[in-house]
Design goal:
The complex is a heterodimer of chains A (about 160) and B (about 775). Chain A has helices at about 25-30, 85-95, 105-115, 125-130, 140-155; strands at about 5-10, 10-15, 50, 55-60, 70-75. Chain A is α+β, with helices and mostly antiparallel strands. Chain A is built from 5 helices and 5 strands. In chain A, strand 1 and strand 2 (about 10-15) form a beta hairpin. Chain A has 2 domains: about 5-75, Beta-grasp domain (Ubiquitin-like (UB roll), Roll), CATH 3.10.20.30; about 85-155, Orthogonal Bundle (DNA polymerase, domain 1), CATH 1.10.150.120. Chain B folds into 3 domains: about 15-130 and about 195-245 and about 250-280, Aldehyde oxidase/xanthine dehydrogenase, a/b hammerhead (Aldehyde Oxidoreductase, domain 3); about 360-455 and about 625-775, 2-Layer Sandwich (Aldehyde Oxidoreductase, domain 4), CATH 3.30.365; about 475-620, Aldehyde Oxidoreductase, domain 4 (2-Layer Sandwich), CATH 3.30.365. Chain B contains 21 helices and 28 strands. A 7-stranded mixed β-sheet of chain B has the order 3-5-1-12-9-10-11. In chain B, strands 7-15-14-13-8 form a 5-stranded mixed β-sheet. Chain B has a 4-stranded mixed β-sheet with strand order 18-26-27-28, sandwiched between helices. In chain B, strand 19 and strand 20 (about 490) form a beta hairpin. The longest helix of chain B has 28 residues, at about 540-570. The N and C termini of chain B lie far apart (about 60 Å). Classes of the chains: A alpha+beta (about 160), B alpha+beta (about 775). Chain A: This is (2Fe-2S)-binding protein. Chain A: Pfam families: Fer2, Fer2_2.
Chain lengths: ~160, ~775
């Protein structure tokens, strides 16, 4: 089995993994990083989205071995003190952008990537930008509002995404 | 500021936005074994042989079992709703034994040390099938000589349920206007974002089962009935649950099997489904063929409505499968007065995944039919669709109103909701633009759709459920415990999975008891913690469970009043309670806070005779009536007549859900409901081919709308308190879904009427719109 070395949410892990092990299963079942859920098996829903070297990736369609030597950020790593203090986390709470919350980790991570590309997206740009992340509860309206609200805060505070 | 009516941010969010969640699949106790299921590739086949020997030899495999191996203990999955005495109820084994009747039915399972090994070993299970004739079309299934889903039954009809009120012959005779329509409610896949998952941990004779379920209490009872493991030996926990929409209002074979496998193997057993197996094996929703006839006078007054349904049960009857269309039976007349109404529904077996409750369950189907008919009636008469509704709806002076379908609508104000919606929508301006576009033959036409709905929810008065032969009651339980320190624990039998109970229930308790919101903790979703409950479905949580809590709080206050009066040496009648403090009328300084009373109740040094120590209460609330939210939804669509593409331009929803506890949560429920109703109108359909293969097994094929597919909604409310409960609340969970589907389709048809189009089947994809245009004689 290949040995991989991955930095996840600031900690470095070294593990022997089956070549076919999906990154999301590595995170959840080997590292106990269960904050990133699985919603489908065809990369459509985006619930499992993480940042891989700063770019969003659906971790159900990435092999753990592909993450070797790279860094992974999950929703658990967004706030160092675990208090949910990232502007996006706060905005999702403030704008009621989640109900069951299952899509939320992926939605927040995908939004981070979106705001890195476009720090001041229009409503339409947020909607298009989050096309790969499905939510069944909210109808998206409050998610769009949360992302734009967080964007405004991040612009003024220059929070590095 | 009073807590009721306040847009409190949710207590639940902190863990959900940081990934500190408690989904069932997150739990993996030491020694957990993982289950994978082999599912039938055939829609209908005899099982001749299942050979599991090779699979047993695979590495890490602990057990491989076929349906036959478990036949003696697995029992049959329950159906709790015997809708007619002669309803045909076929046995439904959790794993098929002799015959499979839908593609995706479990046939065998592997239990292994990890999930990859379990899935690998499925490859080595060898099953011999003899394919049998497949029944996919409901209308063919009920013809003489049709192939049979259940050969020994001699028919594909499960039941026929009828309701009649008024003189239909008189209503139809010489009716100046008679509209006859055939509407198809396509099959839908509920698609909660969290796939199903179940974990069962054995502990001697006891079992703890975590499941992604909406119904921990019902599940516990049913697991006991099915497996004959005594109920008190089973604890069911619904931890964080990632949405349900009816799909987790079920007793699934995989839940029963988790219990049986844990008992057999003596170790924790876990199963988490993949989305593609879930699309085949989670119950589906809708799937009705509706034949409807509406008779009216020349002035638009409705005389009578006749409804004949075929409802697709799928291959088996699950928990409430046969009852779902009945929940619609009472709603076809909607908000309208009429002289006669008749309803008949035949439940039909097909070789497809069983259907059951999906958000709205019966009422969206009914609302779709009547609201489509009202728009058609308006077009037939050349009258504005709002005006036709005004001529028929129950006016606000007429409540309480006994509907033709036998319900008593307690309150409502359809005029107010409609006026508000029209103003927000800019109805007249949009009509003017529509005329303009028609005149200049714009390739992009504008259509306006109306939906003035009501629905029955807050399931339900136990007496009514009994009269409909449902297997249980519709009460809900709450208890309030004021702890010695003055903090409050609220226990509710309603089990949240996204609805925000932890916030809204704390608001109610805070409001009633006068304690800080932060001092209230809401406990739910665990039969060991919340021992009594009827769970969450049918927009019942607040209207039944919230009211139970309201009453439980009042009961605590009454007990506290007795103690406070004793301590203050005052008469109970002389005490006022407000802001969490009892005070003697006219003597403001003489008083005790509820926390002080709690300490006295805890110490029990000086209690009135006959008063038990501690401050707590239990209430089981059984509502006297359903709640009847209503509202007016208006949708404007732009339809490109060259491509058939539909774009929603404006969507206005004005809903009346009575008193609102948390307007932010209510608005969120409406948004999500709209998204699902619009999705039925435009995007979603579970498709089977002629051989009974589901061709929409993935999210790539089954089109859930994304943010890019939906508009920004304009939502508002009118507030007519429900008369049936002291909080004045009505359900809101399903209203958006119920109202929106016909609003969208009405808008599309409205855009295309000049082209001779009278209907577009759902989902109204560009291809279907384009085809309808061609068939309508597009110019």
């Amino acid at each position: 089995m290949p040995r991989i070395r991955v930095e996840v949410d600031g900690e470095t892990y070294e593990d022997d993994v089956e070549p076919r092990l999906l990154l999301v299963h590595y995170l959840r079942e080997r590292l106990g990083k269960v904050g990133t859920p699985v919603g489908c098996d065809t990369t459509n829903c985006g619930a499992c989205t993480v940042l891989l070297d700063g770019l969003s990736a659906k971790s159900c369609s990435v092999l753990a071995v592909q993450a070797d030597g790279r860094s992974v950020t999950t929703v658990e790593g967004l706030s160092l003190d675990g208090a949910g203090d990232h502007p996006l986390q706060r905005a999702f709470h403030r704008e009621h952008a989640l109900q069951c919350g299952y899509c939320t980790p992926g939605m927040i991570i995908a939004s981070l990537d979106l705001l890195r590309d476009n720090p001041d997206p229009s409503e339409a740009e947020v909607r298009e930008g989050l096309e790969g992340n499905l939510c069944r509860c909210t109808g998206y309206q409050n998610i769009v509002r949360a992302v734009r609200g967080a964007a405004a805060e991040m612009r003024t505070r220059e929070v590095a995404p | 500021m009073t807590e009721i009516g306040r847009a409190r941010l949710r207590s639940e969010d902190a863990r959900l936005v940081t990934g500190r969640t408690r989904w069932t699949d997150n739990l993996t106790p030491a020694g957990t074994l993982h289950v994978a299921y082999l599912r039938s590739p055939h829609a209908h086949a005899r099982i001749d042989r299942v050979d599991v020997e090779a699979a047993k030899g695979r590495p890490n495999v602990v057990a491989v079992l076929s349906g036959a191996d478990l036949a003696a203990e697995q029992g049959a999955l329950p159906c709790a709703w015997q809708v007619t005495e002669d309803m045909r109820l076929p046995a439904h084994p959790p794993m098929a034994v002799d015959e499979v009747r839908y593609a995706g039915e479990p046939v065998a399972c592997v239990v292994a040390r990890d999930r990859y090994s379990a899935v690998d070993a499925l490859e080595d299970i060898d099953v011999d099938y003899t394919p049998l004739p497949v029944v996919v079309d409901m209308e063919r299934a009920v013809q003489d000589g049709a192939d049979l889903v259940h050969g020994d039954m001699g028919t594909n009809e499960s039941y026929t349920w009828v309701f009649e009120q008024g003189d239909m012959d008189a209503a139809m005779r010489d009716a100046p206007v008679l509209l006859e329509r055939r509407f198809v409610q396509q099959r839908l896949i509920p698609t909660a974002m969290e796939p199903r998952a179940v974990l069962c941990e054995p502990d001697g004779e006891d079992f703890t089962l975590h499941s992604a379920t909406q119904i921990p209490h019902i599940l516990r009872l049913m697991l006991s009935v099915v497996t004959e493991i005594p109920e008190h030996r089973i604890r069911v926990v619904a931890p964080d649950v990632g949405g349900g929409f009816g799909s987790k209002l079920q007793v699934y074979g995989e839940e029963v099997l988790a219990l049986l496998l844990a008992r057999r193997l003596g170790r924790p057993v876990k199963w988490t489904e993949s989305r593609s197996e879930g699309n085949m094996a989670v119950h589906h929703g809708r799937d009705q063929i509706q034949r409807v006839a509406l008779a009216a006078d020349r002035d638009g007054r409705v005389r009578g409505l006749k409804v004949e349904l075929l409802a697709d049960m799928g291959a088996y009857l699950m928990l409430v499968t046969p009852g779902v269309p009945l929940l619609g039976a009472f709603m076809f007349p909607g908000i309208y007065k009429m002289d006669a109404y008749s309803f008949s529904c035949t439940g039909v077996f097909t070789n497809k995944t069983p259907t059951d409750a999906y958000r709205g369950a019966g009422r969206p189907e009914a609302t779709f039919a009547i609201e489509r008919l009202m728009d058609d009636l308006a077009a037939e008469l050349g009258v504005d669709p709002i005006e036709v509704r005004r001529r028929n709806w129950i006016t606000h002076e007429e409540f309480p109103y006994d509907s033709i379908a036998g319900l008593t609508y307690d309150t409502g104000n359809y005029e107010a909701a409609t006026d508000k919606a029209l103003a927000l929508f800019g109805y007249d301006e949009l009509r003017a633009e529509q005329d303009e576009r028609r005149e200049r033959r714009d390739p992009v036409q504008l259509g306006i759709g109306v939906s003035t709905y009501t629905e029955m929810c807050g399931l339900a008065p136990s007496r009514v459920l009994g009269s409909l032969a449902y297997g249980a009651g519709g009460w809900e339980h709450a208890s309030v415990r004021v702890l010695p320190s003055g903090k409050v624990e609220v226990v509710t039998g309603s089990s949240a999975h996204g609805q925000g109970h932890e916030t809204a229930w704390a608001q109610i308790a805070s409001d009633r008891l006068g304690v800080p919101f932060e001092d209230v903790k809401v406990l739910h979703g665990d039969t060991a913690v919340a021992p009594k409950g009827m769970d969450t479905y049918g927009s019942r949580s607040l209207a039944v469970g919230g009211v139970a809590l309201f009453r439980a709080c009042d009961k605590v206050v009454e007990k506290a009043r007795t103690i406070a009066a004793h301590l203050l040496e005052a008469s109970e009648d002389d005490l006022e309670f407000g802001g969490g403090r009892f005070s003697v009328k006219g003597v403001e300084e003489a008083g005790l806070t509820i926390q002080e009373v709690t300490q006295a109740a805890f110490a029990a040094h000086n209690l009135p005779d006959g008063v038990e120590p501690s401050l707590d209460s239990d209430v089981t609330h059984d509502p006297e009536n359903f709640s009847f939210p209503h509202g007016t939804h208006l949708c404007a669509v732009e339809v490109d007549t060259e491509t058939g593409f539909t774009k929603i331009r404006e969507y206005v929803a004005v809903d009346d859900v009575g008193t609102v506890v948390n307007p932010m949560i209510v608005e969120g429920q409406v948004h999500g409901g709209l998204a699902q109703g619009i999705a039925q109108a435009l995007y979603e359909e579970a498709v089977y081919d002629a051989d009974g293969n589901l061709t929409t097994t993935t999210m790539a094929d089954y089109l859930l709308p994304s943010a890019a597919d939906l508009p920004t909604f304009t939502t508002d409310r009118t507030e007519t308190p429900a008369a049936g409960n002291p909080l004045g609340v009505k359900g809101v969970g399903e209203a958006g879904t119920i109202a929106s589907t016909p609003a969208v389709v009405n808008a599309i048809v409205d855009a295309l009427r000049p082209f001779g189009v009278r209907d577009v089947p759902m989902p109204c994809t560009p291809e279907r719109v384009w085809t309808a245009l061609r068939e309508g004689g597009a110019r």
